[in-house]
Amino acid sequence: MKRIPSSVQIMAHTITIRVVNKSEWKYEGEWGWWDPSKLEILLCRQPRTQLRHSLWHEVVHAALDLMGEYKLSRDEGFVDRFGGLLAQIMDTAEI
């Protein structure tokens, strides 16, 4: 997947995805943000490869939270490695 989707489905939930300009970004020190109360992933505009990695990182947070795996979702090292693997899988997938 080379483009950022506007939404994804996780466990019958629609997760909205928005890319936000740096000038409007309010999560200092973060490149992405998963908001479970709004079922929304926000991504700070950045170079494409980093943007896709940030997307999959936040998707992992969302999936784990929706599975009830809150402790694992807070393990940033695990989430980042898993998100990086998903980014690689999706970027290299052939149809």
Description:
This protein is an alpha+beta fold and 95 residues long. The protein is 43% helix and 22% strand. It is built from three helices and four strands, in the order ββββααα. It has helices spanning 48-67, 70-73, 76-92, and strands at residues 7-10, 13-20, 32-35, 40-44. Strands 1-2-4-3 form a four-stranded mixed β-sheet, covered by helices on one side. A hairpin with a 4-residue loop joins strand 3 (32-35) and strand 4. The model has no long low-confidence stretch (mean pLDDT 95).
Describe the structure in brief.
The chain is α+β, with helices and mostly antiparallel strands and 95 residues long. Helices cover 43% and strands 22% of the residues. The chain contains three helices and four strands; from the N terminus they run ββββααα.
Helices and strands in order:
Blueprint: E1 7-10, E2 13-20, E3 32-35, E4 40-44, H1 48-67, H2 70-73, H3 76-92
Parallel strand pairs: 2-4
Antiparallel strand pairs: 1-2, 3-4
Notable traits:
95 residues; alpha+beta
